[in-house]
Amino acid sequence: MKDEKANVRFSIRFNLNDDEHKKAWEKLSTLKSGEKTAYLIDAILNTDRRESNYEMLMSEIKELKNVIQNLKFENVSKEVVEKEKIAKRASKDVLDFMKGL
C-alpha cells in the first residue's frame, strides 16, 4: 500500500513590491519546474546547516577566547615571577656589594 502522505503540496506567495521577494521570484522563475523543488529543499537545509555551523563556530570562538586569556595570564605570571627572581638576585648582589664596602 502506497503512503498517502508521501508527497505534500506547499504554496507560497511572493510580494513583488518587496525587493527580496522579487529577487527570490526572479531566481525561481529561471528554474525548470522539477528544479524548483530541489532548489528550495537545498536552500532550506543549507540555511539550517549554516545556522548550526554559526552556533558551533561561536561556541568555539568563546572557548578559544578563554584559552587565550588564560595563556596571557599564565605568560604574565611567568614573566612576573622571572622579574621577581631577577630583582631578588640584584638586591642580593647589591647588598653583598654594600657589605663589602
What does it look like?
The structure is a single chain. The chain has 101 residues and is mainly alpha-helical. The chain has one domain. The protein is 77% helix and 0% strand. The chain is built from two helices and no strands. The radius of gyration is 33 Å and the shape is rod-shaped. The protein starts with 18 loop residues before the first helix and ends with a helix. The mean pLDDT is 82.
List keywords for this structure.
77% helix; rod-shaped
Mean pLDDT: 82
Number of structurally distinct domains: 1
Helix content: over 70%
Q: N-to-C SSE series?
A: HH
DSSP helical segment count: 2
Please state the CA-atom Rg, rounded to the nearest Å. 33 Å
* Span between termini: 109 Å
Number of strands: 0
Poorly predicted spans: none
Strand content: under 5%
Mind summarizing the main beta sheet?
none
The secondary structure category is mainly alpha
Approximate shape:
rod-shaped
Furnish the topology, listing elements before pairings:
Elements: H1 19-29, H2 33-99
